[in-house]
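Deliverable D5.2: sample structural annotation.
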Amino acid sequence: MNYAESGYAGLPPICRARDYHLYARGGKRYLDMCLGGGRALFGHRPHGLYKILKNELQKGLAAEFPTQFEKRFERAFLRLAPSGFRLRLYASFDRALAAAESVLGRSLSGADIHEPFFAGDAESGGAAGPLPASQTPHTPDTPQTPDTTDTPPEVSDTADTSNATDTLDAPVYFRPGTDIDYSHFPLLFPVLPFPGNFAPQPLLLREDLRAPGGEAVSPLLLSGLTRLAEELQRGQEFPDIWSEWRLSGWRRFGCYCFPVPRAGLDYARARSRFLEEGIVLSPEARRPSILPRLYSPGERRLVERLSETIFGSST
């Protein structure tokens, strides 16, 4: 099995995951700062998620039926989203990626989706350089009116180039709760805190772009996604509970952390050293390691000590 893309390569078999910790056979505990790239932002057992999934499964709502959850998800999610974008929902990340290809007129992979924290900073994997913290996404008071002029959801083998212009920037991840201006990006891939890679994938397209149609998704999964979107909406202004962390050699944006680029930094080796101490970092330096919402003082001090030793001072 290849666990590199999930961020959990190098771990022994995990027999339990709870909140922000992973438990291996033999009792070793790991503090998870990978968190599935953000899919486990609320931990590996988000409050109420599995109860909702169980309830919908008991109702037999696994097939792609029309249900109440489409409108509920749309209402909750569009209150999180920046203005000027249309929402489309796809059954998987790969299907959303295929739709993005048809819009931009070029092939894409997951590696082509950049982090929004760096605009034009190639070393950090960003798409247009650090964005001023004062530029915040606008949250509409009422849900945006969905566009009804959908084109069919099928993506042809020949990508459409009607929107492919030299002025289009790269697609980026949309991370709710971050103080970033997303308005100049053409496509946003929202990262919602649904643990695992099997959840439906929303896609936000700038309103001036031709928008492919979305897809029907399982009410079972959409019920969970709706619950998490509503939870994000309730806590949209995330407090900075990590101000006490002293992270030498990192750049921190709220809970999202990136190692400061420097000559000779071997991130794969650094990650392995953290892993030996029971700390799971992001699989790549260009993807964020994420500070947990629950941690012990000892865990914080361990991360601080390892950061000082391995990454050094950020000044």
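Annotation notes: The CA atoms of residues 61 and 222 lie 10 Å apart. Residues 122-168 have pLDDT under 50 and may be disordered.
The annotation will be released with the project's public dataset once the embargo ends.
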